[in-house]
Amino acid sequence: MTTSEEIIDRERRFLLPTYNRYPLVLERGKGVFLFDLEGNRYLDFVAGLGVNALGHAHPRVVKTIREQSARAIHFSNLYYHEFQGRLAEKLCQLSGLNRAFFSNSGTEAIEGSIKLARLAGHRAGGEVKSRLVALEGSYHGRTFGAMSLTGQDKYRKGFEPLLDDVKFVPRNDLDALRAAVDNQTCAIVLEPIFGEGGIHECSTAFLRECRILADRHQAALIFDEIQCGLGRTGTIFAFQSFGVTPDIVAIAKPIAAGLPLGGFLAKEEFASAISAGQHGTTFGGGPLACRVALEYFSIIEDEGLLEKVSRVGAYLQERLKSLAGRYAAVEEVRGRGLIQGLQLTTPARPIVEQGLAEGVLFNSTQDTVLRFLPPFLFQEKHVDKGIRVLKKLLGKRPR
Ligand SMILES: *Cc1c(COP(=O)(O)O)cnc(C)c1O
Predict the structure, then answer these.
(1) Is 190 in the same domain as 332?
(2) Domain final residue pick, 233, 268, 302
(3) Minimal-distance CA residue to ligand 1 atom 11
(4) Shared domain check, 323 and 278
(5) Strands (DSSP E) along 58-216, which ranges?
(6) What does pTM read for this prediction?
(7) Distance between Cα 398 and ligand 1 center (Å)
(8) Per-residue pLDDT tens for 59-97?
(9) What is the 3-state secondary structure (H, E, C) of 136-154?
(10) What is the DSSP string of 253-280?
């Protein structure tokens, strides 16, 4: 038997020191619970940062992986298979957009989206139509393209030079937006709800203005729904909750229930700017990942999970708001559905660490925000357990 100490020690010696992990060695999961090496159980408010929307070891996901992996895990994109086209068709039906491209991750979905927007921009306005507008405080991933759109110094510092024609505007600042978008803009890129940035929503007025300006200047409106999309707001796409439709939408995290898969969907007028050979990937869109993603959407429909997200999300919000009135350290509740944040006046990491001893996994972001991204299988009783633990931990903190 390998002990937790041995596992942690081996990582310390052989991995790049990129992660500031919690002292927890996980072994398996079941539904909304995770289990460590010693068999201790944890209620999961993190869901693999939004990946495990169907919880852990969902029987239909396990069955699909078992069946499909015995037939084929990977085919090259040199050839056709049944599931990539079927998944694209499903996503187009659900979104109202026209074409899909599949990648392996969220970052690559963003990368492909801005490559497409550049092609469409150059076609519409020549080489100069290449500028990007993004939001301060945003997070879009770690490649040079995605990092260049990420409006937080801590992710960019040390890696310069990045793409040099990105303008950042503050979220919900209509005047700054109008000043930033012009004829040379090829895309406006934003998360309708900031995830990593601390659960901040874009206002409907701001999103509408983005839509108007993108239309006026023939720029692509790109929504990064990698964290907030695919059911987390109670609609399949977050943009359906806000009533503003983008030209391109990037998705990833939960789509293949934990297998690496991302992608972006585009309206035909942008999709038609790309041709064979201009973009591609070895792994993206393989038969196993695509078939599991089709199962993901079937499970959401069959189990009525969007209704559950809305109902339990509203309950979570009400319970979190009750804390805001009672504890001095709690400032504000933000978000909707099962993407919510609790703004604290004190660091959030100690609460996350103390939560481990109470058998609950919380997550913190932006130092003072507790972020809640539980599986869509969450019930009211799971919310209650989390709130009980939060009360205990917040009560301990100096006022
Ligand atoms: C996680 C995330 C990404 C990056 O996705 P990866 O799969 O980690 O590459 C991009 N945008 C948002 C909003 C995310 O939450």
Answers:
(1) no
(2) 302
(3) 140
(4) no
(5) 99-103, 131-135, 166-169, 185-190, 193-194, 200-201
(6) 0.98
(7) 35
(8) 999 999 999 999 999 999 999 999 999 999 999 999 999
(9) ECCCCCCCHHHHHHCECHH
(10) TTTTBTB--EEEEE-HHHHTT--TTSS-
Residues of the domain holding 185:
72-302
What is the atom index within ligand 1 of the atom nearest the CA of 227?
15
Residue type, 74: H
Q: Is the CB of 147 under 6 A from ligand 1?
A: no
H or E element: which one contains 295?
A: helix 287-302
Pocket of ligand 1 contains residue 111 by CB under 6 Å? no
Flag whether pLDDT at 397 surpasses 70: no
| 270, 286: one domain | yes
Q: How far is the CA of 198 from the centre of ligand 1 (A)?
A: 14
Given the CA of residue 49, which atom of ligand 1 is nearest to it? 1
302, 331, 361 - which closes a domain: 302
Angle between helical axes of 380-396 and 305-326 (0-180°, round to 10):
20
Ligand 1 lined by 390 (C-beta under 6 Å) = no
Of residues 304, 230, 241, 240, the one with CA closest to residue 50: 230
Residue 228 lies in a domain: yes
